[in-house]
Amino acid sequence: MTPDLERIARGLLAAGEVLQDFTAGQVEATRKAGGSPVTEADRRIDDLLRELLPAPGEGWLSEETVDRAERLDCRRVWVVDPLDGTQEFVEGIPEWCVSIGLVEDGRPVAGGILNPSTGETFLGSPATGVTLNGEPVRQSPRTSLRGAVVLASRGEVQRGLWRPFEGCGIEVVAMGSVAYKLARVAAGLADATWTLVPKNEWDLAAGVALVEALGGTVRRPDGEPCLFNRAKTLYPGLIASGAALAAPIEALIEARGGDPLA
């Protein structure tokens, strides 16, 4: 394990210890300015990881920390979501996670995702590959979309945004937490995932690092490069899969509505 992954692993372990003080489905939440939920667990993990992870000269970007422009001058930046899938955490649905990504010169170079409800820890980097609970994994070898398992946002499915993809031979599985979905694609537990709505860098950095670590492809629907630590942290959407499915997915999206991700 590289020193960076060791830091991530220690951070996830410490976050997991904090979460032992909470019971998913039995936590109180308040609403932030944009309407999304936040809990005491989000805040405590944010404080903990902000203290543990950044070394001198490294930047910090987190959903629960006020953003500071000085991170833009850092080559290495920690991009963290203390709890991705807070709504699922509040409702007791086991599809939430702690997400830690390390970005260097705009590219995710290491990532770790912990889902305490399922007992899954995903760790990976291009130098090491990806492990699930310490065991090496590989991405799906599937080359055809027929029968592919595609993970979709539960909220997007409920709002009807995935209706264009009905009857096209894929199995759409609704799931919370985009970071957790990306981790499952990276580990070969699903074939692909894409999102139809904008997401922030902290939702994506760790999962993108994991998918790319094993040669998978991650792309923005607007054709812009997948760079992180930008001044504007919002992505217009994201498509992630094994390399062989990239072209079939793009063809499917175009055929089923032009560009529903834009």
Helix-strand blueprint:
Elements: H1 3-19, E1 30-31, E2 37-38, H2 40-52, E3 59-62, E4 76-84, H3 86-91, E5 97-104, E6 107-115, E7 120-125, E8 129-132, E9 135-136, E10 149-153, H4 154-158, E11 171-175, H5 178-186, E12 192-195, E13 199-200, H6 201-213, E14 217-219, E15 234-235, E16 238-241, H7 246-255
Parallel strand pairs: 3-4, 10-11, 10-12
Antiparallel strand pairs: 1-2, 4-5, 5-6, 6-7, 7-8, 8-9, 12-16, 13-15, 14-16
In short:
By secondary structure, the protein is of the alpha+beta class.
Key traits:
disordered C terminus; five-stranded mixed sheet; alpha+beta; 2 domains; 7 helices; 16 strands; seven-stranded mixed sheet; D-Maltodextrin-Binding Protein, domain 2; 27% strand; 262 residues; globular; single chain; Fructose-1,6-Bisphosphatase, Chain A, domain 1
What does the radius of gyration come to? 17 Å
**Neighbour order of strands in the largest sheet:** 3-4-5-6-7-8-9
Tell me the count of domains.
2
Please state the average pLDDT score: 94
Percent in helix: 25-40%
Describe the 3D structure.
- The strands form four sheets. A seven-stranded mixed beta sheet has the order 3-4-5-6-7-8-9, with helices on both faces. Strands 11-10-12-16-14 form a five-stranded mixed beta sheet.
- With 262 residues, it is α+β, with helices and mostly antiparallel strands.
- The C terminus is likely disordered.
- The relative contact order is 0.14.
- It has two domains: 134 residues, 2-Layer Sandwich (Fructose-1,6-Bisphosphatase, Chain A, domain 1); 107 residues, D-Maltodextrin-Binding Protein, domain 2 (3-Layer(aba) Sandwich), CATH 3.40.190.80.
- It has seven helices and 16 strands.
- Helix 5 packs parallel to helix 6.
